[in-house]
Amino acid sequence: QYHAFETRPDGAPRYDTVIVDAPATGHGLDLLRVPRVILDVVPPGLLRREAERAWGLFTDPVRAGVVLVAIPEELPTNETIELYATVRDELRLPVCGLVVNQVWPPLFTEAEHATLETLAGATVPGAADADVALASWSRAQREAVQAEALARLRREVPVPCFELPALFVRDFRRREVEALANHFDPPAGP
Prior knowledge:
Distance between the termini: 28 Å
Helix content: 40-55%
Mean pLDDT: 89
Largest sheet: 3 strands, parallel
Oligomer: single chain
Strand order of the largest sheet: 1-2-3
Number of strands: 3
Strand content: 5-15%
Number of helices: 7
Shape: elongated
Structural class: mainly alpha
């Protein structure tokens, strides 16, 4: 929070934007709760004033917002939906966006999913086409899980959603960061 209040000698904010990458969900929630707990138990003084300042910042939708990050799988989706409800209902903090990371491009249509399931069940173990059929069916299953996760996230976390594609590269460098940054253009809606 300190950096959000830093100023230059002329009084202007030192930083345009301050990003805090929170730890895992449970620990991140605990960190967000700290100012509120201090306000509830600490008598007037320096510590309480700092907590008031932090809580004022956290709850101001013009100056701050929580961006949730998930991957399109069942358990992370469940956790993100629960996190959204806690941040919104218990902490009453503004949630300004959702980033869904590692979205795989679809390879198969729904009709092809059914065909691949049939082929995977009909292959003879050890046959030349068995590995291809099983790998294709496995990919189709992953696509189905991803589609369901994305649909649930869009439905149950009604904030702007940014989908970042899975990048299948050996080294993650500036080029990859720039490619992902292009996906942060304002979305059409929640």
